[in-house]
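Fig. S4 source data, part A: sequence.
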Amino acid sequence: MKLANVRAKAFAMPLNDPAYPRGPYKFYNREFVVITYRTDVDALREVVPKPLEVASDTVAYEFIRMPDSTGFNDYTETGQVIPVRFRGADGTVQEGGYVHAMYLDDNAPIAGGREIWGFPKKLASPKISHESETVVCTLHYGSVLCVSATMGCKHHEIDPASLLKALARPNFMIKIIPHVDCTPRICELVRYYCEDVRLKGAWSGPAAIQLFEHAMCDVARLPVSEVLSASHYITDLTLGLGEVVFDYMKDA
């Protein structure tokens, strides 16, 4: 293969059979269960990287069922998002979320999420199921139960305007790609937005969540002290491609 052809084809690995197609990626009937809980603010400060600032003592624990998406098709995901503030070079302050941990059950979105945006994705077995009047969510890492969450199904409708406003906020993560000697070659703070959001239904209800300690699935690092709220909603949306807002290898 000629050098020019390598450069032209190089998008994702493997070179001749990429694990995923080019974006953007559209999702249909994306189902969210989000339980917001209070935690130890010192534990949050230990995991949120500067220049982001911890904005509260809460964590949004998310389960997301994606039955139909372009490029990635059908999978389920779960993880923790931390409310943060980001001050840009021009002094503008944004409220958003820092994606601390993600676990999912499909190779293509793991590879694409890590390589394109820097999503902190690991292979595991999250699940959303509907059992009578209850939405049941679990995360197994191998055979071990790491998260158990339940929510009363569709008890109260949520104001769509407030939810759409929250979904319009940016999210941040750290993209890390090592050099061949295992030193960091890329280490960047990336920002992305959910785009073209179409809300199909949104509800609140009573909820409970338990996090269990695991050496390789450290969701319990941010312990639950009090459940504050829970939401269950369904959307169509486009996962916007990201932009680098801070380069740890270059910026002071």
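Fig. S4 source data, part B ends here. The mean pLDDT is 96.
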